[in-house]
Amino acid sequence: MSENKDPQVTDQADQADQAGQAGDQGVKFVYDFTEGNKDLKDLLGGKGANLAEMTNLGLPVPPGFTITTEACKVYLESGAEPVALRDEVSAHLDALEQRMGKKLGQPDNPLLVSVRSGAKFSMPGMMDTVLNIGLSDKSVQGLAKQAGDERFAWDSYRRLIQMFGKTVLDVDGDLFEEELEKAKRAKKVAVDTDLDAADLKKLVTRFKKIVKTEAGRDFPQDPREQMDLAIHAVFDSWNTDRAKLYRRQERIPGDLGTAVNVCSMVFGNLGPTATSKSGGTGVAFTRDPASGHQGVYGDYLQNAQGEDVVAGIRNTVPLAELERIDKKSYDQLMQIMETLENHYKDLCDIEFTIERGQLWMLQTRVGKRTAGAAFRIATQLVDQGLIDEAEALQRVTGAQLAQLMFPKFDEEAKTEQLGRGIAASPGAAVGKAVFDSYTAIKWSRSGEKVILIRRETNPDDLDGMIAAEGILTSRGGKTSHAAVVARGMGKTCVCGAEDLEVDTKRRRLTAGSVVVEEGDVVSIDGSTGKVYLGEVPVVPSPVVEYFEGRMHAGADDADELVGAVHRIMAYADRVRRLRVRANADNAEDALRARRFGAQGIGLCRTEHMFLGERREMVEKLILADTDTEREESLKQLLPLQKQDFVELFEAMDGLPVTIRLLDPPLHEFLPDITELSVRVALAESRQDNNENDLRLLQAVHRLHEQNPMLGLRGVRLGLVIPGLFAMQVRAIAEAAAARKTAKGDPRAEVMIPLVGTVQELEIVREEADRVIAEVQEQTGVQLKLAIGTMIELPRAALTAGQIAEAAQFFSFGTNDLTQTVWGFSRDDVEASFFTAYLEKGIFGVSPFETIDRDGVGSLVRSAVEAGRATRPDLKLGVCGEHGGDPESVHFFHEVGLDYVSCSPFRIPVARLEAGRAASTSAGSDHR
After folding, report:
1. On the CB side of 142, how many CA atoms lie within 13 Å of its CA?
2. Pairing mode, strands 294-302 and 280-287
3. H-helix or E-strand containing 74?
4. What SS3 state is found at 351?
5. Cα separation of 675 and 680, whole Å?
6. Residue 678 burial (CB < 10 Å; 0-12/13-18/19+)?
7. CA distance linking residue 904 with residue 914, whole number of Å
8. Which residue in 264, 263, 261, 260 sits closest to 75, CA to CA?
9. What is the pLDDT of residues 655-687, one digit of tens each?
10. 475: how many CB neighbours lie within 10 A of its CB?
11. Residues identified as active-site
12. pLDDT digit string (tens) for 117-130?
């Protein structure tokens, strides 16, 4: 089953798609680093495109070549690489060997290469990499001689066997790790750098035995076979479970494929000589990816290869330490970082290696960042003149804004601090301690909030990281796997808390004399790196305080982040076309929505006004046997409804208020049938018959429906129960008249729910017009009440042209429209099979979360066109919760709606995304 597809295909991908059959000689499948550029990400992947761009900029990039994503697609679809690929790779390998003056795996002076994945969008740690390709029993001797460092050669060989065994031959990686631990214990050392050449030589022998036993074959000694198998393994890694899971989480299309980068090796684990220092490897950011502040940020690890830093297995030193260790390389790196940031006009994430004093750039990309950093960096770059406001708006997202609105820990609260690590990804997370991904998933599915605690995470922990509220590791830095992935997901993370001893086997964490067992509650602060025992209380975030009006962006004590949010929100409001309304049912919610920037109410659900003490009046209405009893019940409800609307119109004075007449089935206002049956049975057993309960039970049975979602509800109630809708319309009209008399400016809109045919709407509208005319005559106040309908049934969407003849506005009820289009009962399917559908890739995301463009969206689009063809001034909006979903907001902008409506808390998100949808800037994609 395929995953969701990428709607955007570049010219290069188009070209390759037309001629990309295996064996077609006309398609170019391999590009030298000197041939590409940063705009070819679809074809060369992000890593390959950026290696080419750095090469073009004259930066020190080890020579190499990139196998395109189109080759990967052919391989995945056909099970074999394109026929032309081998010859192309051979030609580029020959050119590389000539340039380097040595051949791949040459016994006396071997060329070694890395084989690394690189998709269009960054997927840190999700796909495979193999380093030191070309080493063998013979060439390891040549490498030792050429490098003048026997330890380095055998360390590189054992790394190759370990990575190749795990990645290419599917050998359990723990088997290699266990042998490495045995070797360190035998030598009585703590880190692998303390093992000497003899130790590593023995380790290579044991590693090769593991490969033979577990893979059923010898470790390949032919360097070209190593490279070919590694390339296929990278292709295959596109469809691993962890890669698919990450793509679903990040909404990355599943049909992109990955490129493969074959790059000549440079070594940070090469020892010093008399004239040069030992090397190392590192990851750098041109700004702090956690806060957005400018400065020197990153991690460096001496005597190491690149994967060591990201894996977090050894704790790194801050990048600033490199100035003391190797000032020449540090100064050169600072110049390159400035060059790259100015060139890409964004935060850049850089991987580099220093080989005996020579700096090499291994990768750059637009760096993942936290939500707060995204807003700060966007405004900083505007101030620096690198980007304009339109581009700044594209650099942030509604999802990031929503993260900034989450609460933070109360600094005044009493706390018990367990330790402190590196603030890797901000937020306040509280949950029960768990020590493996399986438990995190299991407990999370049962409703528990958990904190995943590990020594370090690896790609296999991804599903547990998604399930957890936050991640805590005792090793690794800001560029470790845990930190990078957590930032990308917007998940709270604290890394490198060295004072905490994590014992995953005994499932406990020890901080001094305090022991935290699995299931104990801990709190982690990703903004400070602090770790607390127990639950720390939270307070509203500064961004929420700003939207509430309790903090002003220009005040002296205003948060710097608030200022950045204010600037971007102000620009979004200036450029957006879509108006944003709120779903609100009472004055309190309406006032909050207005503070958050709502431009009216798009959905007031009147059924919420009939709960609590008023439920008894509704019961009387349902039980009424005569017209007189029914009219008496409606008469009691009228003044209460009127007062509700007066308060709502006052809160939203001068702004439109769309009021939906009663929608749910009447049985929802009656007691549960089981509870009522028990009550009646017990009363009868005591011979204490309760006449009212008996009548209620009879009414529940009478109104019981097999599928109430499709039963007596919405407009059908107004047609079947005389006077019900008339009472509600009268309350709306009288409330509007009262507000106008009080010099207010009420702008009421009456919305008829669940209309499927124009005849239903015409009957209800005729009655509503009569009631409004009566109120005008009684009060002497002229009223302009728009009357429209919800489009929430497929038939309504298909006959929208007819319905528009009787409706002044449409509001798309996308929750019910999704249910009826898909044939789903949302309450049932989300708990039963949605998880399986998501895992199998049938859905990229739940259609109740993001609008289904192809199905539900198609009906919305056709209804908009048909409605406006009938009535050009037809007002169009949406009032399902899709109105606050970032991706859906873009769709509603595209199809020409006038407004979206969502819950008050999501209004800022909708405002921002409406601005992004309207902005003409192409923008950046930071996935």
Report:
1. 17
2. antiparallel
3. helix 69-78
4. strand
5. 9
6. exposed
7. 16
8. 260
9. 999 999 999 877 677 667 777 788 777 777 777
10. 22
11. 481, 879
12. 999 998 877 888 99
